[in-house]
Amino acid sequence: METIQNVTARQIVVPLENPVWLGGYAVKQREYCLVELTTDHGAKGYALAFTRGANLADIVVSLLAPLLMNQPVGQIERLWETMYYGVRLNGRQGALMRALSLVDIALWDLKSTQWNVPLHRVLGGYRDSVPVMMAGGYYSAEKGIQELCKEFLDYVDQGYKHLKLVVGGASMEEDLARFIAVRNQLPAGIQLGVDANGAWDDPKAVLRWIERADRETTGLSFVEEPLPPEQRAGLAWLRQASSTPLAVGEFIAGRWMFLEYMKEGCMDIVRADATLCGGISEWRKIAALANAWNLPVIPHYFAPLHIHLALALPGCSLIEVVSTAGRNSSFHLIAGRSYELKDGEAVPTNAPGLGYVLDPDFIEAHTTQVMSV
Hints:
This protein has helices spanning 56-68, 76-86, 95-114, 119-123, 145-157, 172-185, 203-216, 232-241, 255-263, 279-292, 303-312, 331-335, 360-366; strands at 4-22, 25-39, 44-50, 130-136, 162-166, 191-195, 223-224, 246-248, 269-270, 319-322, 339-342, 345-348, 367-372. It is α/β, with parallel strands linked by helices. The chain has two domains: 4-117 and 358-372, Enolase-like, domain 1, CATH 3.30.390.10; 121-348, TIM Barrel (Alpha-Beta Barrel). α2 (76-86) runs antiparallel to α3 (95-114).
């Protein structure tokens, strides 16, 4: 029986060419953790995701790897439980779950690569393509209203039909003016939502913002993370008070926490992110819960990974990308591209596993730490 013999984790830092502002804070670089699993037969599986400032490499190698060594690679669900319960005293959210998620994703990549089929076929193979949502409108000193509108019209020209505007990094009045200007410039058939990244904190103020946006434009397709994730009562109140869908979930992990949000009426759209919610194994369970509650799923970012989940399972309506301009998105520089964009839809390359094509030179040049066991 093939077993895990080596776990390697790298911290990778890619500076942005120009800093951007997101939800009230500056982003000057993208920090990733790359996990590599190797079996006693020499097979490998990979996973790549943001660190969000945490030393995920240390967590992976110091806490999780000892639980994996010499274990059968095909028993992914058992290994998930071994990791989850084996470090139960260290938390159920945040950095620990990000690290666990990376290992789980690498196990699924390993399995589907060994089978020589794309991951989405191993997981179910529900559809052949999925619509893509472009997230844009990041703040910068050089971007006024005119430049912002041009940015979004350019996205339309590139074929995107679903768009999202970043808010929460300026005053609510300024963000309302930004949204109104962009929405009124876009063709009627283009969907536009907003993402506050949990930066707003007053549910009643958010409701007033939504109502004004609806009165002065053709409306919002959704409001994402309008409040911090711990404000579940506020999210539930806002969802009841407004007919605009709330997209929530990119900050939380574990099927149990998502179930609580669903039971309490905190979300209309489930924004589960496989790189932090518990990996592919847990994402599938969360998606099944969402399906049972008749809630659509739009996974958060990481389209090269989430395309496989969206293609494999029902209920996933979109995947999300951000512009590569200025290295705001640099995932492709590390792992290549696992899909092509055709008329606003992502079509997979159908390479085995996740379909990542790692660039060893780029990785080596931007690696700040390597740990292995």
